[in-house]
Amino acid sequence: MSERVRQKCSHSEEKYQTNISLETLDSGCLNSATVCGVDWTTLPDDTVIQLFSYLNYRDRASLASTCRTFRLLGSLPCLWGSLDLRSYKFDTVAAVSLSLRCKNLQRLKFPAAGSADAI
What we know:
Layout: H1 3-15, E1 25-26, E2 29-30, H2 45-53, H3 57-64, H4 68-74, E3 82-84, H5 92-101, E4 107-109, H6 113-118
Parallel strand pairs: 3-4
Antiparallel strand pairs: 1-2
Helix pairs in contact: 3-4
C-alpha cells in the first residue's frame, strides 16, 4: 500500500470508524480492498484502465498484482503500447520477455547501445 493510500485510509478511519469483522477477512488475512471503507474492486473497468494508464510500468505491475480483476485489466495490450526503460538494465532475457508479453508494443525507450544489441 503506498504512502498516499495509507494517509487516505487514516483520514477515512477518523471519519468512519471501520470495524474489522469476519466479512473483511479473506483466508485469515485482511481484505485490503475494503479496509478503508472503499471497495476498489467495484470500480468500472474503464475507470481502472484509465488509472493504469497514468502509472509507470513498475507501478502498473504492482497494482496488477493486488487482485485477479486488476491483473486481468493491467495486462490489456492497450496499456503496453510504449515502455520507458531508460533507468533500468535491459538485456536479452528482458527483450524476450517483453516480446512475449507486450504484443502491442510500439515504442520502447532504453538507455544505451548495449541494450539495442539485446533487441
